Amino acid sequence: MRQIIRVLLSSIFLFTVLASIFAQNNKVEVAIIGFYNVENLFDTIDDPITIDEEFLPDGKYKWNSEKYLHKLEQLSFAISQIGKNVNNIGPTVLGLCEIENRLVIEDLIKQPLLKDLNYGIVHYDSPDRRGVDVGMIYQKDRFKVIGSSSHKVISADTNFLTRDQLLVHGLLDGEEMYFIVNHYPSKRGGEKRSLPKRIEAAELTRSLYDSLYALNPEVKMIIMGDLNDNPDAIPLSKTLQAKGKISDVKPGELYNAMFPLYRNGIGSYAWRDTWSMLDNFILSYALLETEDNKNENKGYQLYAAKVMNDSFLIQKSGKFKGYPFRSNAGANYIGGYSDHFPVYLILSRKPKQ
């Protein structure tokens, strides 16, 4: 309940501030950058090279066309609401995880609530044994993809396979921007056993950032994803070295935009009555307004970060009352959205005169 009250108060405050600022200056441009773990978005077709048997008509979840189409409808509505308090045209860029393949993304963006938003797709198949991947959708009239690549996490455990990391380079309303979409290894097997694997994933992310920073110290990069750790965990705070306060961030360093929300007890995922901020946005210095980086000509910079915890996304009754309204409880389909809340950033800039 405290989580819900905090988020509702935060939402009211954010909406009031945004309405005031954008009413005073309608020349401010805004981009909504979102991320959503969509909780096992599988089709109903057997993939012979992955372990997807649980999500087949005769599998554990009795996954069929009716459930699949309903989940697409639910997700499309949730996505259409991301950033609606700022604009009414859906997220400009949205990272996704727990998607089975490109087909399910294509089916998602064809839904009536999304089809007119002109989304493009960036996706690569990952080596994950269950077949779940990461991907990105983007509004093609606002983000122009220059290039993309998929990067494999190299593990000391040679039998371990996890999701690749998706690097996308493009122009956001004409401004050069990089995105890395992630889904770090889970804590299956316990913290001690799984931690080294998330550190390995964070080392790859940091290496990708360092390489681009070496080429351009003004690089604008947003690292997003279900990192399966809170902002103060070792992979994020030590390996990625993502700071929790903007005032502490120096050129070349990274900032975790979800850290302040996490410190206030807000999370994107609940388990055993404990809230965690597993879904994170980590930004490069050039996207921050700091004492040394205050310049109206800097282009897009971070305005706010938010967990989308609207009432329709919350379980209203039962054992998981107050949790994210998920699709499945055990093997039972309950018709929700996801076991994670969507998260998003608001970027703002003043148009060049």
- Percent of residues in beta strands: 25-35%
Counted up, domains total: 1
Q: What is the CATH homologous superfamily assignment?
A: Endonuclease/exonuclease/phosphatase
Which structural class should the secondary elements be placed in? alpha+beta
Percent of residues in helices: 10-25%
Strand order of the largest sheet: 5-6-7-8-13-10-9
Specify the overall morphology. Answer: globular
The CATH class label is: Alpha Beta
Rg, nearest Å: 19 Å
What report would you give on this structure?
With 353 residues, the chain is α+β, with helices and mostly antiparallel strands. The protein has a single domain, classed as 4-Layer Sandwich (Deoxyribonuclease I, Chain A), CATH 3.60.10. It contains six helices and 17 strands. The strands form four sheets. The chain has a seven-stranded mixed β-sheet with strand order 5-6-7-8-13-10-9. The radius of gyration is 19 Å and the shape is globular.
